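TL;DR need structure tokens for one chain.
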Amino acid sequence: MAEKKPAIQKETITKWQNIVDLTARIVDVPASLVMKTDAPDHAVLVSSQGDDNPYFVGQSFELSPKLYCHAVLEGRDELVVCDAHSDPDWNDNEDLKHGMSFYIGYPLQWPDGSLFGTICVLDHCENKKALLYKDLLKEFRSVIETDLALMIEIRERRRLENRLQHSHDVLEVRVAERTRDLSEANQSLRDEITRRKKTQQALGRREKELEEVNTALRVLLTQLEASRGEFEKQILKRINDLVLPHVEKIKQSIPPEDNLFNYLELLEGNLRQITSSFAGQLSQALDGLTSTEVEIAQLVMSGNSTKDIANILSREKSTVDFHRNNIRKKLRIENRSRDLRTHLLSLH
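>> reply
TL;DR here they are.
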């Protein structure tokens, strides 16, 4: 099922109104229209302003071979009818009811090629001036189709922003959960220390034995605090090295194109690494690389070719090859037949 297209905003309608009004004045026709198609209906979306224009916004027609616009939509091409009265193909068409025997029209399409409708001009008689300005009408068609493409792009950008916000929210929840777990563990440890002290005091152990136990407990506490600090540093380092560079690039990408999706995939992949127990050979290997080499290594692991990586990072292919060679040297992959991606995945 085809995805529903975005609604036309008021400011866009105003812009198109200016286009049809300008077309009508320049070409000197009573009717200049933007028609929207939702089969089987074909309705007036924007109509030029003028007392002799018989068409009004919202006016609807049923698509049939007796409509000029039907032929435009069927053929997806230009249609010019100079005099419908003398043309056997058009001498009984619906628009003759409004006295419109002259017609020039072009199809309007969404970026995916599906039909939006038509842009057309109509007159009561042959209009040679309109024939001379067909290229102008084509340019106005391009303006409207550019607006349609922009609508799709804005919708996709909002979707990506929503995905990024969702990922951010999920990360915050997981960090809060980890923080709560750590706090509970610390409280449990403090409770255990208190219990041991009370037990030791109740037993009345000798001072020397109590001192030895206390010394052992202090060492244990120091080690636990050091381990906790190292764990927190590792989390912070992974966020700074693996997540924030991609987030920053997404924010700075204007306009967003396919690269945004790639960065989002990297972000999601890195988030999974942070929230998992990942701390093996791959992490140690990446610690020895620069931030650019880490980024390229991540893209290689995601299955991107050198050409793809060059496009995503807006770098020359030779630059990517240079960094790939550096990665191989630092990882000591001496066998040239050994695939870099295979090697990186084996460290996972």
